[in-house]
Design brief:
The complex is a heterotrimer of chains A (276), B (230) and C (240). With 276 residues, chain A is an alpha/beta fold. Chain A is built from 12 helices and 12 strands. Chain A has 2 domains: 126 residues, D-Maltodextrin-Binding Protein, domain 2, CATH 3.40.190; 113 residues, Periplasmic binding protein-like II (D-Maltodextrin-Binding Protein, domain 2), CATH 3.40.190. The chains are: A alpha/beta (276), B mainly alpha (230), C alpha/beta (240).
Amino acid sequence: MKMLTRRLLMAVTATLVFGGSASAQEKSILVASTTSTQDSGLFGHILPMFKARTGIDVKVVAQGTGQALDTARRGDADVVFVHARAAEEKFLAGGFGVKRYPVMYNDFILVGPKGDPAGIKGSKDITAALVAIKAKGADFISRGDKSGTHQAELNLWKLAGIDIARDKGPWYKEIGQGMGAALNTASAANAYVLADRGTWLSFKNRGELMIAVEGDKRLFNQYGVMLVNPEKHPSVKKDFGQQFIDWLVSEGQRAIADYKVNGEQLFYPNAGDSGA
Amino acid sequence: MPDDVSALHLVLSGDAALFAIVRLSLYVSLSAVLLAAMIGIPFGAFLALTRFPGRQGVIVGLNALMGLPPVVVGLAVYLALSRSGPLGSFGLLFTPRAMIIAQTILVAPIIAALARQTIEDLWIEYRDELTAMNIGPLGRVATLVWDARFSLVTALLAGFGRAAAEVGAIIIVGGNIEGFTRTMTTAIALETSKGDLPLAVGLGMVLIAIVIAVNALAWTARRAGERWAG
Amino acid sequence: MRAPFSELPVVFDGVTVAAGAVTILDNLTLEFTPGAPTLLIGPNGSGKTTLLRLAMGLLAPSRGRISWGGRENAAPLKRAIVFQRPTMLRRSAGANIRYALRAAGVPRAERARRCGELLELVGLEALADRAARKLSGGEQQRLALARALARDPAVLFLDEPTASLDPTATKAVEDVIREVGQRNIKVVMATHDLGEARRLAGDIVMLHRGRVVEAAAASAFFDAPQTAAARAFLAGELLV
């Protein structure tokens, strides 16, 4: 009986840790993407359609753009779907990706408290608004996590002529967390925060927050998708991954346009725009 | 708000997705406790029954490991299981198995340290009788583990509590993939970040209820067993 | 087949046990041979328990040598002990005995039968399935005796097995000990109860302050003690 027990335990161990880990046979891919695409509910809308069409299960790991690119660089994802063009091109230049396809865009918005301490409500000039926030020392929450949104924010400070690394005061708080956490913090502290529209629209804990600045061309937020280079990482499921990318830039464009929260469209497909 | 109602409804109505999340949470945490027990109890028994130079240091180290930061364990397991890491070829990253491995590492020291204490106490009581019966080292371990089984349940529960409550390690190595590696704790983290606090709180209450239920079950079993075996 | 190894005689040769500055047993030379029960008597603290632990091999002497059937460092294969406060395993009474049978290498097929016989010998057959630790003190002593006998010992050491028992329980235990004596098992038993010593003894070894004061046949010891300490002890005086 001792022997039997021992064999049983060994079998259990093996099953738990290694058993059936031959996921190669299973029709699935792993996509490293951003919190904004997941938190906005877009994947929940489009992935079932893709699965119905191809039978491929798409597993999404939602991280900041920086972390998502790093996950892909290590070979732990098959496809990377993010929104920080400069970083994506660096990824391609390093030979980690095969080709970048523009997929869709939405825009960033500057969210702030209804009290509007910086007096910027309704403005269409994001750089002027940032200058006003700094001048008034109004509380501002920064993602501080190297995500696409964080990189966009840093770029906007630069465009406003402000060296935020040098000029930041106690009013500028870097939290090092995702979009939702940043919105929660801003909601609790009645602070300004740069957010992507998708996450904002599906965010439920708004409190006193409202949109302060929107519609500036410089708030444009482009998403791109890339297959991780199978020559660097042979484990990449290149056929399934490419199928997903091909679908996103063709049939999937329609599905993206159709996704609405409270009647509002969150993402605008633009796969045809080769310059995006 | 209608959203609050739907969130609460989701929790109360036993939604299929919620059920899958609960099942995965239990699968991951209980598997980790099982594996950790298979490592921790023999190791604890070994420490309890042997004397060697540096043993005190090992015990202090083991006790300290009970406080291993989950994020650090998560990161270490992530780096080990990554395709670029030493165990990358198994393809375990972002799977439930990766989560089991990380939680096993977190839980094993707790079970080992508590088992060491329990078994050493029992050994003091049993030493003369077992020596007089000429029981060898393996027989001693088997006897002590068997006779301490009801006390060891407490060690397993402590381990389960740590595993079930833990989010830092599994969110890193599991990736919080919907329908695949999303557990109670990672779902709570996600819903919080989405600002859906009512759903997050609802999930939290479900998690607490499950932990209480598991503990109550184990406690009842322990009491019944003790009443029988003294 | 090898001739069965005998544990007897148990020989103490110049055995001293010291714990720090305190000498518990002092240069003891003594022999337990096959035959009628040997009773160790003497006041509390005279070294009876230490002597039994040495004889069982649970304790190594500070000086001197102990041998069993001419061999030193012999594993306790054919000797068994019942402690003053035996520890019951956290199992049923029957399981405690089956455990000892298994430890003694009794084949699985025989264990149930042997277990039944031993329980019957100590009068616990009705309590076989009860948790051992839930039994009364007297029942636990009898179970401990049965468990010790499960090892089929050539020599059985008993450390004041009746010390905390009422007369009925004491009689039950003594009956078992007498029965054991009939089975060609050498009994070496410590007691501080002179009445018990008279009832059971073949030989007497009297200890005082870690030394053997007198060793003699029971009749000789009780009728004509040779030393002042023995006379005082028999007279019920306090030995200090």
